[in-house]
Amino acid sequence: MNSKKIFIWAPFTSKIGTIRNVINSSYSLVKFSKSANLNIKLINVFGEWNDFSDEIEKKNIKTVDLNSAKFINNYNKEGFLKSRISYIIIFISSFFPLLKLIKKEKPNYLIIHLITSLPLIILTLFSFKTNLILSIAGHPKINFIRKIIWKLSSKKIFKIICPSNELREILIKHNLFDESKIIVIQDPHLFVKKINILKKEKLNENFLENGKILISIGRLTKQKNYHFLISNFNKIQLKYKDTKLLIIGDGEEKFFLNNLITKLKIEDKVKIIGYKKNIYNYLKKSNYYISTSKWEGSSLAMIDAVFLGLPILCSNCPTGRKEFINNDERGFLFIEGDNEDFLNKFEKMYNLDFSQFKTKLVKAKKESKKFTLLSHYSRLSNILDI
């Protein structure tokens, strides 16, 4: 029997949540597929996956080097303009190597994430039997250029994967793809065995020892709206003296946010500790999870928090979290950017009795099972017919 080839294209210029999803999705195919003739390869475009080589090798995920634009790893990609220049470099330098790879290997499926314009254009311009699967994560800006590329390539796309029904409805509304091609598959985020190990790692963090900890996780960017969170927490801690706020993440707003904390004189109540590879031991020590984002993808830190038994309070920003929380059934939603609504919803969360807390938690943990590797594999394998 001939081997079924599944190639995965996911070049990235900064370390974002989609990277973990790509690794977990690839691993789910390796781990759960019963077919010995499945050939899965992750395309290493310019060496971006080298930092994850130990993990990829341990999970038996094969890679194929495109040998293109390796110098981009040393290029400063921070900021809007520099990141866009890097996209152009990747596109130009990878065009012919990717074309050659597809011609030579003839993969049955090519699953594409992140910088997707190049494979979309190649499979539109050239005739291949490869089935193209476009994975759309987060809350994409459907600008003019993206609309043109998606519209022109739509007939060559086999399936479109998105992580939420809300995003699916947005794509349908734009009328860029055949509705029947758009499939909802939640991100493969929860690796239960690993989480149970990581949550037990010891912490040397005195800040977490006393009081009720509010935790928020994500890059320190405008998107996450930490200015809103810190400003409102200042009001919370005046009423609820036992509360503290822990923020895990790095980013361009770090200096600005630390200045705000100093200005409000709440340095003993708020702490920003930077990026942490393991967040589960911090979540285990916390009491509430809060996200004030202006927009989000699948809010994977929210899923982590629910899995570890924390009540959640999130903005009603697009996309995905509204359908997860579902009218405060599995947590609390507040109107994004609305100070009064945020404070009211926090008070409701803080004053939950045990019965209310348990009801929400049971429903939330049940919903979170859609984000396990096995659940993701079950849906993806149906598309791939494996």
Model description:
- Strands 3-2-1-4-5-6-7 form a 7-stranded parallel β-sheet, with helices on both faces. The protein has a 6-stranded parallel β-sheet with strand order 10-9-8-11-12-13, with helices on both faces.
- The radius of gyration is 22 Å and the shape is globular.
- Helix 3 (80-105) runs parallel beside helix 4 (117-125) and helix 4 (117-125) runs parallel beside helix 5.
- It has 15 helices and 13 strands.
- The two termini are 13 Å apart.
- With 386 residues, the protein is an alpha/beta fold.
- Strand 5, helix 5 and strand 6 (157-162) form a beta-alpha-beta unit.
- The protein has helices at 17-32, 53-58, 80-105, 117-125, 144-153, 165-174, 192-198, 226-239, 254-263, 280-284, 300-307, 321-325, 339-350, 354-368, 373-384, and strands at residues 4-9, 38-44, 62-65, 109-112, 131-135, 157-162, 182-184, 212-217, 243-248, 270-272, 288-291, 312-315, 332-334.
Q: What is this entry, summarized?
A:
The protein has helices spanning 17-32, 53-58, 80-105, 117-125, 144-153, 165-174, 192-198, 226-239, 254-263, 280-284, 300-307, 321-325, 339-350, 354-368, 373-384, and strands at 4-9, 38-44, 62-65, 109-112, 131-135, 157-162, 182-184, 212-217, 243-248, 270-272, 288-291, 312-315, 332-334.
